[in-house]
Design a protein that fits this description.
heterodimer; A: mainly beta; five-stranded antiparallel sheet; 11 strands; B: mainly beta; seven-stranded mixed sheet; four-stranded antiparallel sheet
Chain lengths: ~110, ~110
Amino acid sequence: KQEVTQIPAALSVPEGENLVLNCSFTDSAIYNLQWFRQDPGKGLTSLLLIQSSQREQTSGRLNASLDKSSGRSTLYIAASQPGDSATYLCAPSSGTYKYIFGTGTRLKVLA
Amino acid sequence: NAGVTQTPKFQVLKTGQSMTLQCAQDMNHNSMYWYRQDPGMGLRLIYYSASEGTTDKGEVPNGYNVSRLNKREFSLRLESAAPSQTSVYFCASVWDRASGYTFGSGTRLTVV
């Protein structure tokens, strides 16, 4: 059974810092991995989708890496801003297109 | 706008009442999913439909039923609501194995 762990559970940083959010998963037989952002009381917004054959994906200030063999992914946020404050969720997919979610990293960027 | 639409957005039920949560997508996606999100528990898969005409149980199916009405619509039914089913429910869809999820905006359900 796939289990997903995200570390840290919460993070508070001053504006401008570069951040690394970590995700680990127990079953390396994944098709891809998706990173999401969730604002309080809102739905999930897809940030990056990284295929199992890829090592990384980039979108603006965000960069996600994937080490499938070791069961790890990291989300790098460059030059953090208060608008980046949200919960970030990692979800590897395996089996019948099913995504399994971690409990997230709650990020607060202070102005 | 293309996407996943969930109705209703909010609902309060009394214990024992029944209701159906609706989900529709207009992206011609093949697979659809229902998750629930509880504080500290993350998102947990309730049921999914890999393709039109098929449904399967996820991690927490007890107390729920689903119907894949057609390719666009996937509904979740609570036959006899319990306070433990108080949660935020999300529907998601995906085109194929190489694609990522698209989520609806959620239904916040309270059972009193």
